[in-house]
Specification:
GO terms for molecular function: calcium ion binding. This protein has 138 residues and is mainly α. It is built from six helices and two strands. The radius of gyration is 15 Å and the shape is globular. Bound molecules: calcium ion (CA) (2 copies).
């Protein structure tokens, strides 16, 4: 994990850069799809859902909720990804929902840069790395 400074435009630029975003998403999808059937089951998605850290960072309080509560949260997140409710998440659903969540984070962040603790390898971290690399290119 590392502490990075980001604002809404960091996230918007990343999501709107179709190529960079699609590559990151496809790459993550392939790694999560451990049985390589092109679909993510709930157990395959669980690892990704855990990195979202929705529960732990809710209201800025670092809490460890009980397992039943967590299972409920992960289930409802999975349902959010599974747009056609067929019990699995395909690449298109994964991409759409990841994008939606990133934009929701961007709305929450707003235009003032904020410091966030980011997991290595998270999409937000990729957004920050992308911004650094374009800055260097300029
Ligand atoms: Ca699979
Ligand atoms: Ca589905």
């Amino acid at each position: 994990m590392s502490v990075e400074v980001l604002d809404a435009s960091t996230i918007h630029n990343f999501v709107e850069d179709e190529e960079a975003f699609n590559v990151s998403v496809a790459d993550r999808f392939a790694r999560l799809d451990t049985d390589h059937n092109g679909l993510l089951s709930f157990s395959e998605m669980l690892k990704e859902l855990q990195t979202l850290r929705v529960v732990e960072t809710h209201f800025g309080i670092d809490v460890k909720p009980d397992p039943a509560e967590l299972a409920y949260v992960y289930n409802s997140l999975f349902v959010q990804f599974d747009h056609d409710s067929n019990g699995t998440v395909d690449l298109e659903e994964f991409k759409e929902e990841t994008k939606r969540m990133m934009l929701a984070v961007a709305n929450g962040v707003g235009f003032l840069p904020v410091q966030m603790v980011l997991e290595e390898d998270s999409f937000l971290k990729k957004a920050v790395e992308r911004e650094y690399s374009t800055r260097v290119a300029l």
